[in-house]
């Protein structure tokens, strides 16, 4: 893999984080305006379900990418290993950021 | 050629013109200094406004300043400090430092630097004039609607803010594009990204944040000015708009802006600490990781400024956690700095004093930031002096202290002289004590419930003694900062002469001379280390002696080396423009546009716009192999060509980065459309498209054809085939104009009620946006056809069509995206 590809990976994790964040916040707004569930349902609503699946999907994707980068270290030339390690760390941090910011989906009602 | 002859010849090519000719200077050293000096002047003005505010608040029930004047003063204090001081002075520092750190003689777009400076200067003067005319904006520095709308701010104050700040933002965007491309494409050969000084990583992140962060505010300012001037109801509920949209767009810019200010300041800290610790920074890669994390996550925090506007709890929780998470990369940086100090042999000097002040004050400001990220606490202290205290801890600690540390560190570089230690010590301690007296106590004032932005208060509220002490502290701090400024001014005359590289630093700027030569490096060395002056001290003499690359100057061109973005591999020679009045003239014309819009004399604005367009097109004409730029010379080396003889170069990169900013503005527009559609209670979506769909489709087919034709002709040109090039370019121009005519027809025929419906107003704005791009790319293509006639574009000079090509792609992309989002999506959703 070339240096250019690793540069894409360097910002890839956090770009995915941004995309997830837009989907999460924008999706919440749109879903609440279209079919707001009753407040009494608490956090056990279809909206929370959709957002939770989205969050878990992105987390799995980012963890997979972090692992993939980590195991590529051995096969890449030494001058590229810095980018490989950084990319892996950034995918991992992005996965953590997705999971951490997405946690309230399991706790709070969506539209209150 | 001897070293002396080389120096003399370099000076002749790179020096500014004498006398009034200084106005034509484009050199990054001159432009960077001008940004910093102008920023310092605005800082003094903003400081005087702050002292007036503190004088009024020192005692209860004072009537020194009335409520109206107080509103103007606090609005202008915040505006001046944020937009006219903090951002521009750091941009100036970056513009000054970056070429010197990466081993280049100048930035890649010198005329754009100059245009940016004049836009900043004229925009700042226009904005400040409102204060002296007594009509300054008075809605607060973030100009919330509806307070800033025509109904509640009928005077010209808001217009001064919106037009002045938009004008100033040209300079920020210019710096963002300029710095990004310069860092990526003009580093010394061999300087890979991971060999780059850490300062450059910070500035690269800051520049890209400007590219993505500023456009939402530019869009918001244009929309609000259109609402005020024409009555398009983007933020008025009755017309289907929503005032909260302004808050979203403002803080989409506003929160990243905090980090746009902090990152360059942290860059200074990360540069100064290793030098005075006498060792490389510990955790360079951790710092890179933290910089990238900060740059991204800071875009996901904006709603923490809006916790009280009625957003669902779940959404607030997202932003609350994201706000706390940004503390992680910040903490990584603090630990890196502390670890470097811990393991080094620290030399205590004036710059280090400010670094220690920064560490203490900024960490405290960061901790109150984490407190404010907690929604319930945020609700309690919202709009109180606690928030004012927090933001001043962050901004003074996180920006002003590092800035002064950097100024003291690079003072010998600017002037060749050393500062006064005694006056510097007094300046620091008075500032430090005064600052903490003012703002530490202000946290308590806020916790006791004192709202921000009230011009006076009753004596029985229990806030009197705190306010008095804060005011005394404010004046102590002002005195301290006055001493610092005096020290800096006096050192130019009385400072001790500096030795070369007086702090024994590791980075290349100290090899450019103290003060630096206008060309920085007489010859450009290969760099394969992060610490060139520590590992190769002989560079201090071998560079001026012309022992490295690019030491020939007989051709008379200003040249720098062009390298690949990641590996630093040598690719081409970039020839740069010399001194030019065109940026000044273009900025003056834009100032006429600004004033014309301000006083609502629209013919004047139109004339200014046409004159500005003339100067900008004239500017674009003097490029490539034009006689004023780089006409063919016999000494050209085909193995290392001039960039205008290739298919890639800084212009193409600049175009792409500019389009990224343009795309950010466009995305903000789509966000606004979807937001109003989803949230605004009075939003009216018509049953069918108001714009003729068949006309739009035909127009779309034509822009597609034009783009494909252009791509095809550039592909052929890149393979050396220029047969019929001029005719093909004229054909593309013709198709482009027909596309434009159809788009105008669709707009004219549409029954849009732009002053009654936000929907219609947004649609109108979108079509104008598309028309602007289509017109621009068509005219530029026509100019390319003309340039073929003059021989500036040909098989030997294929560069310029490759610069224009991404603009055609972008125009095509936004066209179909707009048709899908603004026309088809409502039709499908409505069905």
List how many beta strands of chain B DSSP finds: 2
- Which sheet architecture does the biggest sheet of chain A show? none
* Beta-strand content of chain B: under 5%
Terminal residue distance of chain B? 78 Å
List keywords for this structure.
heterodimer, A: elongated, B: mainly alpha, Four Helix Bundle (Hemerythrin (Met), subunit A), two-stranded antiparallel sheet
Structural summary, described in words:
- The complex is a heterodimer of chains A (112) and B (831).
- Chain A is an all-alpha fold.
- In chain A, α1 runs antiparallel to α2 and α2 runs antiparallel to α3.
- Chain A contains three helices and no strands.
- The radius of gyration of chain A is 17 Å and the shape is elongated.
- Helices cover 72% and strands 0% of the residues of chain A.
- Chain A has a domain of 75 residues.
- Chain B is mainly α.
- Chain B has a domain of 147 residues: Cytochrome c oxidase, subunit III, four-helix bundle (Four Helix Bundle (Hemerythrin (Met), subunit A), Up-down Bundle).
- Chain B contains 24 helices and two strands.
- A two-stranded antiparallel ribbon of chain B has the order 1-2.
- In chain B, α6 runs antiparallel to α7, α8 packs antiparallel against α10 and α11 packs antiparallel against α13.
- Chain B is globular, with a radius of gyration of 27 Å.
- The mean pLDDT of chain B is 95.
- The chains are: A mainly alpha (112), B mainly alpha (831).
């Amino acid at each position: 893999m070339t240096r250019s590809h690793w540069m894409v990976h360097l910002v890839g994790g956090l770009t995915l984080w941004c995309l997830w964040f837009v989907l999460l916040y924008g999706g919440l707004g749109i879903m609440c305006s279209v079919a707001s569930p009753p407040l009494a349902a608490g956090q056990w609503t279809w909206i929370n379900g959709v957002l939770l699946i989205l969050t878990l999907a992105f987390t799995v994707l980012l963890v997979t990418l972090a692992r993939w980068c980590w195991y590529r270290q051995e096969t890449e030339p030494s001058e590229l290993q810095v980018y490989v390690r950084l990319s892996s760390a950034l995918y991992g941090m992005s996965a953590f950021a997705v999971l951490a910011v997405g946690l309230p989906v399991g706790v709070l009602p969506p539209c209150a | 050629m001897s070293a002396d002859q080389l120096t003399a010849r370099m000076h002749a090519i790179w020096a500014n013109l004498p006398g009034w000719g200084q106005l034509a200077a484009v050199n990054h050293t001159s432009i960077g200094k001008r940004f910093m000096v102008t920023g310092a002047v605005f800082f003094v003005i903003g400081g005087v406004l702050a002292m007036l505010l503190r004088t009024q608040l020192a005692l209860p029930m004072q009537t020194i300043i009335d409520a109206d004047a107080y509103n103007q003063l606090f609005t202008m204090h915040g505006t001046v400090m944020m937009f006219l001081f903090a951002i521009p002075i750091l941009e100036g520092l970056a513009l000054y430092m970056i070429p010197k750190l990466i081993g280049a003689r100048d930035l890649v777009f010198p005329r754009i630097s100059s245009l940016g400076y004049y836009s900043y200067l004229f925009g700042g003067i226009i904005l400040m004039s409102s204060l002296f005319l007594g009509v300054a904006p008075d809605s607060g520095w973030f100009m919330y609607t509806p307070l800033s709308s025509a109904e509640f701010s009928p005077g010209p104050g808001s217009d001064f803010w919106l037009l002045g700040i938009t004008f100033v933002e040209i300079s920020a965007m210019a710096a963002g594009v300029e710095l990004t491309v310069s860092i990526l494409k003009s580093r010394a050969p061999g300087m890979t990204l991971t060999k780059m000084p850490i300062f450059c990583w910070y500035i690269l992140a800051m520049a890209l944040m400007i590219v993505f962060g500023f456009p939402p505010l530019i869009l918001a300012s244009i929309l609000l000015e259109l609402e005020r001037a024409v009555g398009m109801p983007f933020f008025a509920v009755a017309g289907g708009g929503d005032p909260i949209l302004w808050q979203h767009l403002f803080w989409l810019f506003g929160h990243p802006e905090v980090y746009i200010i902090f990152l360059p300041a942290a860059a200074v800290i990360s540069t100064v600490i290793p030098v005075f610790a006498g060792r490389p920074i510990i955790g360079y890669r951790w710092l890179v990781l933290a910089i990238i994390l900060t740059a991204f996550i800071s875009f996901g925090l904006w709603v923490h400024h809006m916790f009280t506007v009625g957003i669902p709890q779940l959404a607030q929780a997202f932003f609350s956690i994201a706000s706390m998470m940004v503390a992680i990369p910040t903490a990584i940086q603090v630990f890196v700095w502390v670890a470097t100090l811990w393991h080094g042999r620290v030399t205590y000097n004036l710059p280090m004093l400010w670094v220690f002040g920064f560490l203490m004050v900024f960490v405290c400001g960061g901790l109150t930031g984490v407190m404010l990220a907690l929604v319930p606490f945020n609700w309690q202290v919202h709009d109180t002096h606690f928030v004012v205290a927090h933001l001043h801890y962050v901004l003074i600690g996180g920006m002003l202290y590092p800035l002064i540390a950097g100024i003291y560190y690079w003072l010998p570089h600017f002037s060749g002289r050393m500062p006064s230690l005694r006056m510097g010590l007094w300046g620091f301690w008075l500032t430090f004590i005064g600052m903490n007296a003012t703002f530490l106590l202000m946290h308590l004032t806020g916790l006791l419930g004192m709202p921000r932005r009230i011009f006076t208060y009753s004596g029985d509220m229990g806030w009197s003694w705190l306010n008095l002490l804060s005011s005394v502290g404010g004046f102590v701090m002002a005195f301290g900062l006055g001493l610092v400024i005096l020290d800096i001014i006096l050192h130019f005359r009385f400072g001790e002469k500096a030795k070369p590289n007086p702090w024994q630093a590791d980075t290349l700027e100290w090899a450019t001379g103290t003060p630096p030569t206008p060309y920085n490096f007489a010859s450009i060395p290969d760099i394969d280390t992060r610490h060139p002056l520590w590992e190769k001290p002989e560079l201090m003499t071998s560079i001026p002696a012309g022992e490295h690359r690019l030491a020939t100057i007989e051709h008379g061109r200003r040249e720098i080396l062009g390298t690949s973005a990641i590996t630093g591999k040598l690719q081409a020679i970039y020839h740069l423009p010399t001194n030019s009045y065109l940026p000044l003239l273009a900025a003056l014309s834009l100032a006429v546009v600004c004033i014309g819009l301000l006083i609502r004399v629209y013919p004047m604005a139109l004339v200014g716009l046409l004159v500005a367009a003339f100067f900008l097109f004239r500017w674009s004409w003097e490029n490539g192999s034009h006689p004023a730029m780089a006409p063919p010379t016999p000494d050209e080396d085909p193995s290392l060509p001039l960039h205008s003889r290739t298919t890639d170069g800084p212009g193409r990169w600049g175009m792409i980065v500019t389009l990224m900013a343009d795309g950010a503005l466009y995305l903000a527009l789509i966000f606004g459309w979807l937001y109003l559609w989803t949230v605004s209670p009075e939003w009216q979506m018509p049953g069918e498209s108001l714009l003729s769909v068949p006309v739009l489709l035909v127009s779309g087919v034509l822009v597609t054809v034009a783009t494909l034709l252009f791509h095809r002709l550039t592909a052929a040109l890149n393979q050396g085939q220029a047969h019929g090039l001029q005719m093909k370019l004229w054909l593309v121009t013709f198709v482009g104009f027909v596309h434009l005519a159809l788009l105008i027809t669709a707009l004219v025929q549409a029954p849009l009620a732009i002053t009654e419906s936000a929907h219609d107003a947004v649609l109108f704005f979108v079509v104008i946006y598309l028309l602007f791009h289509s017109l621009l790319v068509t005219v530029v293509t026509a100019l390319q056809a003309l340039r073929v006639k003059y021989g500036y574009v040909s098989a030997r000079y294929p560069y310029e069509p490759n610069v224009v090509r991404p603009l055609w792609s972008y125009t095509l992309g936004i066209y179909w995206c707009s048709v899908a989002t603004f026309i088809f999506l409502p039709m499908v959703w409505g069905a």
